[in-house]
Amino acid sequence: MGGSNPSLEDLLQSLKIKGDDLGGIFVPKAEVEALKEDSKWMAVLKVLTTKTFSASSLKQTLRFAWAPAQVITFRDLENGSFIVQAKCLGDWQRITDQGPWLFREQGVLIEKYDGCCKATSVELNRIYAWIQIHDVPELFRKKHIMTDLAAEVGQLLAVDMTGGDFVWARVWLDVRKALTRFVTIRPEGESPVFMRVKYEKIPKYCAICGFLGHVKEECGSGEHPPEAEGFGTWLLAETVADNRKRNSTDAKLTEVSPIKEANTSAAPLMLEWKSPGEVGAPGENGAKKHLEFDVQEAEKVYPPPVGTPPPLPSAWEKKRPKKHAPAKQDLNTTVTAGSAAEHRPIQ
Protein backbone atom coordinates (compact mmCIF):
# COMPACT_ATOMS: atom_id res chain seq x y z
CA MET A 1 0.00 0.00 0.00
CA GLY A 2 1.61 3.22 -1.13
CA GLY A 3 1.70 6.33 0.99
CA SER A 4 2.07 10.00 0.23
CA ASN A 5 5.00 11.24 -1.82
CA PRO A 6 6.06 14.68 -0.50
CA SER A 7 8.69 16.69 -2.29
CA LEU A 8 12.26 16.87 -1.03
CA GLU A 9 11.86 20.54 -0.14
CA ASP A 10 8.86 19.76 2.06
CA LEU A 11 10.78 16.98 3.79
CA LEU A 12 13.79 19.19 4.49
CA GLN A 13 11.57 21.83 6.03
CA SER A 14 9.64 19.41 8.22
CA LEU A 15 12.50 17.18 9.38
CA LYS A 16 15.13 18.02 11.96
CA ILE A 17 18.41 17.60 10.09
CA LYS A 18 21.31 16.46 12.29
CA GLY A 19 25.04 16.45 11.66
CA ASP A 20 25.06 12.85 10.50
CA ASP A 21 22.50 13.70 7.84
CA LEU A 22 24.79 16.37 6.40
CA GLY A 23 27.46 13.87 5.37
CA GLY A 24 28.08 12.91 1.75
CA ILE A 25 30.85 12.65 -0.79
CA PHE A 26 33.23 15.36 -1.91
CA VAL A 27 33.50 16.16 -5.63
CA PRO A 28 36.56 18.17 -6.72
CA LYS A 29 36.03 21.28 -8.81
CA ALA A 30 37.96 19.83 -11.75
CA GLU A 31 35.60 16.87 -11.86
CA VAL A 32 32.59 19.18 -11.64
CA GLU A 33 33.85 21.07 -14.69
CA ALA A 34 34.35 17.80 -16.56
CA LEU A 35 30.80 16.74 -15.67
CA LYS A 36 29.48 20.05 -16.95
CA GLU A 37 31.23 19.42 -20.25
CA ASP A 38 29.35 16.13 -20.60
CA SER A 39 26.04 17.75 -19.62
CA LYS A 40 26.09 20.78 -21.92
CA TRP A 41 23.58 21.59 -24.67
CA MET A 42 20.63 20.41 -22.61
CA ALA A 43 17.15 21.85 -22.14
CA VAL A 44 13.96 21.02 -20.28
CA LEU A 45 10.65 21.14 -22.13
CA LYS A 46 6.97 20.64 -21.45
CA VAL A 47 3.77 20.84 -23.51
CA LEU A 48 1.34 23.53 -22.37
CA THR A 49 -1.71 21.29 -22.02
CA THR A 50 -3.60 19.29 -19.41
CA LYS A 51 -4.56 16.63 -21.95
CA THR A 52 -2.76 13.34 -22.34
CA PHE A 53 -0.64 12.75 -25.43
CA SER A 54 1.82 10.27 -26.85
CA ALA A 55 5.38 10.99 -25.77
CA SER A 56 6.75 9.17 -28.81
CA SER A 57 4.56 11.30 -31.09
CA LEU A 58 5.86 14.46 -29.41
CA LYS A 59 9.48 13.43 -29.87
CA GLN A 60 8.93 12.51 -33.50
CA THR A 61 7.18 15.82 -34.20
CA LEU A 62 9.92 17.89 -32.55
CA ARG A 63 12.71 16.02 -34.32
CA PHE A 64 11.00 16.74 -37.62
CA ALA A 65 10.52 20.43 -36.74
CA TRP A 66 14.06 20.92 -35.48
CA ALA A 67 15.72 19.03 -38.36
CA PRO A 68 18.87 18.45 -36.27
CA ALA A 69 22.27 17.97 -37.86
CA GLN A 70 23.17 15.35 -35.26
CA VAL A 71 21.38 12.99 -32.90
CA ILE A 72 18.89 14.48 -30.41
CA THR A 73 18.17 12.49 -27.24
CA PHE A 74 15.15 12.71 -24.91
CA ARG A 75 14.64 11.54 -21.34
CA ASP A 76 11.21 11.45 -19.72
CA LEU A 77 10.68 13.06 -16.32
CA GLU A 78 8.07 12.19 -13.73
CA ASN A 79 6.06 15.41 -14.00
CA GLY A 80 5.36 15.20 -17.73
CA SER A 81 8.48 17.16 -18.67
CA PHE A 82 11.41 16.00 -20.79
CA ILE A 83 15.14 16.57 -20.89
CA VAL A 84 16.45 17.04 -24.40
CA GLN A 85 20.14 17.09 -25.26
CA ALA A 86 21.81 18.08 -28.50
CA LYS A 87 25.22 16.97 -29.73
CA CYS A 88 26.29 20.26 -31.29
CA LEU A 89 25.92 23.97 -30.62
CA GLY A 90 23.89 24.67 -33.76
CA ASP A 91 21.15 22.18 -32.86
CA TRP A 92 21.01 23.44 -29.26
CA GLN A 93 20.66 27.08 -30.35
CA ARG A 94 17.89 26.20 -32.76
CA ILE A 95 16.00 24.30 -30.06
CA THR A 96 16.32 26.92 -27.33
CA ASP A 97 16.51 30.24 -29.21
CA GLN A 98 14.07 29.77 -32.07
CA GLY A 99 10.39 28.98 -32.03
CA PRO A 100 7.72 29.09 -30.86
CA TRP A 101 7.49 25.32 -31.20
CA LEU A 102 4.02 23.80 -31.35
CA PHE A 103 2.73 20.28 -30.85
CA ARG A 104 -0.87 19.69 -31.96
CA GLU A 105 -1.39 23.47 -31.83
CA GLN A 106 -0.26 23.56 -28.20
CA GLY A 107 2.82 25.46 -27.08
CA VAL A 108 6.06 23.71 -26.15
CA LEU A 109 7.73 25.49 -23.22
CA ILE A 110 11.54 25.20 -23.33
CA GLU A 111 14.23 26.41 -20.94
CA LYS A 112 17.99 25.93 -21.07
CA TYR A 113 19.33 23.52 -18.47
CA ASP A 114 22.88 23.22 -17.13
CA GLY A 115 22.29 20.06 -15.10
CA CYS A 116 23.31 21.62 -11.76
CA CYS A 117 19.82 21.36 -10.23
CA LYS A 118 16.91 18.96 -10.47
CA ALA A 119 15.33 19.15 -13.88
CA THR A 120 11.84 19.12 -12.34
CA SER A 121 12.66 22.34 -10.45
CA VAL A 122 13.16 24.32 -13.68
CA GLU A 123 10.27 26.76 -14.13
CA LEU A 124 8.50 26.39 -17.47
CA ASN A 125 6.13 29.31 -17.79
CA ARG A 126 7.07 31.28 -20.91
CA ILE A 127 7.16 30.87 -24.67
CA TYR A 128 8.73 32.80 -27.54
CA ALA A 129 6.45 34.90 -29.74
CA TRP A 130 6.67 37.39 -32.57
CA ILE A 131 4.18 40.21 -32.10
CA GLN A 132 3.00 43.05 -34.32
CA ILE A 133 2.02 46.47 -33.00
CA HIS A 134 -0.45 48.11 -35.39
CA ASP A 135 -1.99 51.58 -35.74
CA VAL A 136 1.21 53.35 -34.66
CA PRO A 137 1.06 57.13 -35.27
CA GLU A 138 4.09 58.34 -37.19
CA LEU A 139 4.87 60.83 -34.43
CA PHE A 140 5.54 58.02 -31.96
CA ARG A 141 7.14 55.55 -34.38
CA LYS A 142 10.52 55.74 -32.66
CA LYS A 143 12.55 52.76 -31.53
CA HIS A 144 12.84 53.77 -27.88
CA ILE A 145 9.07 54.28 -27.65
CA MET A 146 8.28 51.02 -29.43
CA THR A 147 10.76 49.21 -27.17
CA ASP A 148 8.83 50.34 -24.11
CA LEU A 149 5.51 49.42 -25.72
CA ALA A 150 6.68 45.90 -26.67
CA ALA A 151 7.87 45.38 -23.09
CA GLU A 152 4.24 45.83 -22.03
CA VAL A 153 3.39 42.61 -23.90
CA GLY A 154 6.22 40.41 -22.63
CA GLN A 155 9.90 40.22 -21.80
CA LEU A 156 11.51 42.06 -24.70
CA LEU A 157 14.14 40.36 -26.84
CA ALA A 158 14.27 42.43 -30.05
CA VAL A 159 12.46 45.19 -31.96
CA ASP A 160 12.24 45.43 -35.75
CA MET A 161 11.11 48.75 -37.23
CA THR A 162 10.94 47.47 -40.85
CA GLY A 163 7.45 46.00 -40.63
CA GLY A 164 5.76 48.49 -42.94
CA ASP A 165 2.40 49.39 -41.41
CA PHE A 166 3.35 47.85 -38.06
CA VAL A 167 6.32 47.28 -35.76
CA TRP A 168 7.69 43.80 -35.09
CA ALA A 169 8.95 42.65 -31.70
CA ARG A 170 10.13 39.34 -30.30
CA VAL A 171 9.18 38.69 -26.69
CA TRP A 172 8.84 36.03 -24.05
CA LEU A 173 5.13 35.55 -23.32
CA ASP A 174 4.28 34.65 -19.74
CA VAL A 175 1.73 31.81 -20.02
CA ARG A 176 0.44 32.64 -16.53
CA LYS A 177 -1.04 35.88 -17.87
CA ALA A 178 -3.73 36.65 -20.42
CA LEU A 179 -2.71 37.89 -23.85
CA THR A 180 -2.25 41.63 -24.21
CA ARG A 181 -4.71 43.06 -26.72
CA PHE A 182 -3.71 46.73 -26.81
CA VAL A 183 -0.82 48.96 -25.82
CA THR A 184 -1.31 52.62 -25.02
CA ILE A 185 0.59 55.87 -25.28
CA ARG A 186 -0.59 58.69 -23.02
CA PRO A 187 0.77 62.03 -24.32
CA GLU A 188 0.66 64.73 -21.69
CA GLY A 189 -2.41 66.90 -22.07
CA GLU A 190 -3.85 64.76 -24.89
CA SER A 191 -6.13 61.75 -25.27
CA PRO A 192 -4.62 58.24 -25.00
CA VAL A 193 -3.51 56.56 -28.21
CA PHE A 194 -4.45 52.86 -28.47
CA MET A 195 -2.55 50.43 -30.70
CA ARG A 196 -3.57 46.88 -31.50
CA VAL A 197 -1.32 43.90 -30.74
CA LYS A 198 -1.34 40.88 -33.04
CA TYR A 199 0.47 37.57 -32.58
CA GLU A 200 2.21 35.37 -35.13
CA LYS A 201 2.08 31.57 -34.80
CA ILE A 202 0.92 31.31 -31.21
CA PRO A 203 -0.63 28.23 -29.57
CA LYS A 204 -4.33 27.77 -28.99
CA TYR A 205 -5.82 30.37 -26.70
CA CYS A 206 -9.14 30.95 -25.00
CA ALA A 207 -11.46 33.54 -26.54
CA ILE A 208 -13.04 34.11 -23.11
CA CYS A 209 -10.13 34.50 -20.68
CA GLY A 210 -7.25 35.06 -23.12
CA PHE A 211 -4.96 32.40 -21.63
CA LEU A 212 -2.88 30.01 -23.72
CA GLY A 213 -3.34 26.24 -23.46
CA HIS A 214 -7.08 25.79 -23.93
CA VAL A 215 -10.02 27.02 -26.02
CA LYS A 216 -13.33 28.58 -25.02
CA GLU A 217 -15.19 25.24 -25.08
CA GLU A 218 -12.80 24.04 -22.37
CA CYS A 219 -12.99 27.18 -20.22
CA GLY A 220 -15.26 26.62 -17.22
CA SER A 221 -18.47 24.93 -18.35
CA GLY A 222 -17.66 25.74 -21.97
CA GLU A 223 -20.98 27.56 -22.45
CA HIS A 224 -20.45 31.24 -23.14
CA PRO A 225 -22.53 33.85 -24.99
CA PRO A 226 -20.91 35.44 -28.05
CA GLU A 227 -20.62 38.81 -26.31
CA ALA A 228 -18.36 37.22 -23.67
CA GLU A 229 -15.59 36.66 -26.23
CA GLY A 230 -13.01 39.35 -25.63
CA PHE A 231 -10.07 37.66 -27.37
CA GLY A 232 -11.15 36.96 -30.94
CA THR A 233 -9.29 35.85 -34.04
CA TRP A 234 -8.42 39.49 -34.71
CA LEU A 235 -5.47 38.86 -32.36
CA LEU A 236 -3.91 36.59 -34.99
CA ALA A 237 -1.54 38.26 -37.43
CA GLU A 238 -1.31 37.38 -41.09
CA THR A 239 2.11 35.81 -41.56
CA VAL A 240 4.26 35.90 -44.68
CA ALA A 241 3.16 32.35 -45.53
CA ASP A 242 -0.52 33.30 -45.26
CA ASN A 243 0.03 36.33 -47.46
CA ARG A 244 1.93 34.29 -50.05
CA LYS A 245 -0.78 31.62 -50.10
CA ARG A 246 -3.53 34.20 -50.57
CA ASN A 247 -1.63 35.94 -53.37
CA SER A 248 -0.93 32.66 -55.19
CA THR A 249 -4.62 31.76 -55.04
CA ASP A 250 -5.65 35.12 -56.46
CA ALA A 251 -3.04 34.83 -59.21
CA LYS A 252 -4.71 31.69 -60.55
CA LEU A 253 -7.92 33.64 -61.22
CA THR A 254 -7.47 36.07 -64.10
CA GLU A 255 -9.18 39.45 -64.24
CA VAL A 256 -11.49 38.29 -67.09
CA SER A 257 -12.58 35.12 -65.33
CA PRO A 258 -16.25 34.94 -64.25
CA ILE A 259 -15.15 32.48 -61.55
CA LYS A 260 -13.12 35.18 -59.80
CA GLU A 261 -16.04 37.61 -59.97
CA ALA A 262 -18.33 35.03 -58.37
CA ASN A 263 -15.67 34.08 -55.81
CA THR A 264 -15.42 37.64 -54.48
CA SER A 265 -19.18 38.02 -54.02
CA ALA A 266 -21.62 36.44 -51.62
CA ALA A 267 -23.70 34.95 -54.47
CA PRO A 268 -23.21 31.27 -55.35
CA LEU A 269 -21.10 30.48 -58.38
CA MET A 270 -23.22 30.33 -61.55
CA LEU A 271 -23.32 31.74 -65.07
CA GLU A 272 -26.20 33.42 -66.91
CA TRP A 273 -26.84 34.72 -70.44
CA LYS A 274 -26.20 38.45 -70.87
CA SER A 275 -26.96 38.82 -74.57
CA PRO A 276 -26.91 36.53 -77.60
CA GLY A 277 -23.49 34.97 -77.80
CA GLU A 278 -22.25 36.18 -74.40
CA VAL A 279 -22.06 34.66 -70.93
CA GLY A 280 -20.91 36.06 -67.56
CA ALA A 281 -21.32 36.06 -63.80
CA PRO A 282 -24.84 36.94 -62.55
CA GLY A 283 -25.41 40.48 -61.37
CA GLU A 284 -22.53 41.97 -63.35
CA ASN A 285 -22.83 44.58 -66.11
CA GLY A 286 -21.91 42.89 -69.34
CA ALA A 287 -20.42 39.51 -70.02
CA LYS A 288 -16.89 38.48 -69.18
CA LYS A 289 -16.26 36.26 -72.18
CA HIS A 290 -17.58 36.11 -75.75
CA LEU A 291 -18.64 32.73 -77.10
CA GLU A 292 -18.27 32.15 -80.87
CA PHE A 293 -21.36 30.34 -82.17
CA ASP A 294 -24.37 30.94 -84.45
CA VAL A 295 -27.29 32.11 -82.29
CA GLN A 296 -29.88 31.49 -85.03
CA GLU A 297 -28.62 27.97 -85.52
CA ALA A 298 -28.73 27.34 -81.78
CA GLU A 299 -32.35 28.54 -81.55
CA LYS A 300 -33.64 26.18 -84.29
CA VAL A 301 -36.04 23.43 -83.22
CA TYR A 302 -35.57 20.15 -85.07
CA PRO A 303 -38.44 17.60 -85.36
CA PRO A 304 -37.93 14.22 -83.73
CA PRO A 305 -36.83 11.34 -86.02
CA VAL A 306 -39.60 9.32 -87.72
CA GLY A 307 -39.77 5.55 -87.48
CA THR A 308 -38.19 3.00 -85.22
CA PRO A 309 -34.41 2.79 -85.21
CA PRO A 310 -32.92 -0.63 -85.98
CA PRO A 311 -32.14 -2.74 -82.93
CA LEU A 312 -28.62 -2.85 -81.67
CA PRO A 313 -26.72 -6.07 -82.37
CA SER A 314 -26.60 -8.50 -79.50
CA ALA A 315 -23.39 -9.63 -77.86
CA TRP A 316 -23.65 -12.99 -79.65
CA GLU A 317 -24.04 -11.29 -83.00
CA LYS A 318 -21.03 -9.12 -82.34
CA LYS A 319 -18.89 -12.20 -81.61
CA ARG A 320 -20.28 -14.33 -84.48
CA PRO A 321 -17.73 -14.71 -87.28
CA LYS A 322 -18.69 -13.03 -90.52
CA LYS A 323 -19.44 -15.18 -93.58
CA HIS A 324 -16.95 -14.85 -96.38
CA ALA A 325 -18.54 -13.22 -99.42
CA PRO A 326 -17.66 -14.58 -102.89
CA ALA A 327 -14.60 -13.01 -104.34
CA LYS A 328 -15.31 -10.25 -106.78
CA GLN A 329 -13.95 -10.68 -110.27
CA ASP A 330 -11.80 -8.02 -111.79
CA LEU A 331 -13.35 -6.99 -115.08
CA ASN A 332 -9.97 -6.15 -116.50
CA THR A 333 -8.68 -9.68 -116.00
CA THR A 334 -11.84 -11.68 -116.78
CA VAL A 335 -11.36 -14.24 -119.55
CA THR A 336 -13.74 -16.68 -121.19
CA ALA A 337 -13.52 -20.42 -120.75
CA GLY A 338 -12.33 -20.82 -124.28
CA SER A 339 -9.58 -18.31 -123.99
CA ALA A 340 -8.48 -19.86 -120.74
CA ALA A 341 -8.29 -23.24 -122.40
CA GLU A 342 -6.22 -21.84 -125.20
CA HIS A 343 -3.57 -20.70 -122.79
CA ARG A 344 -3.68 -23.84 -120.61
CA PRO A 345 -0.29 -25.55 -120.60
CA ILE A 346 0.12 -28.82 -122.49
CA GLN A 347 0.13 -31.83 -120.16
Automatic annotation (TrEMBL):
Q: Where is the composition biased (Pro residues)?
A: 302-313
- Quote the InterPro entries the UniProt record gives: At4g02000-like, DUF4283, Zn_knuckle_CX2CX4HX4C
Q: Where is the composition biased (Basic and acidic residues)?
A: 286-300
Pfam families assigned: DUF4283, zf-CCHC_4
Where in the numbering of this chain does the Zinc knuckle CX2CX4HX4C domain appear? Answer: 173-219
Q: Where is the signal peptide?
A: none
| Ranges where the record places region Disordered | 267-347
Name this polypeptide is given: CCHC-type domain-containing protein
**Organism (species):** Lolium multiflorum
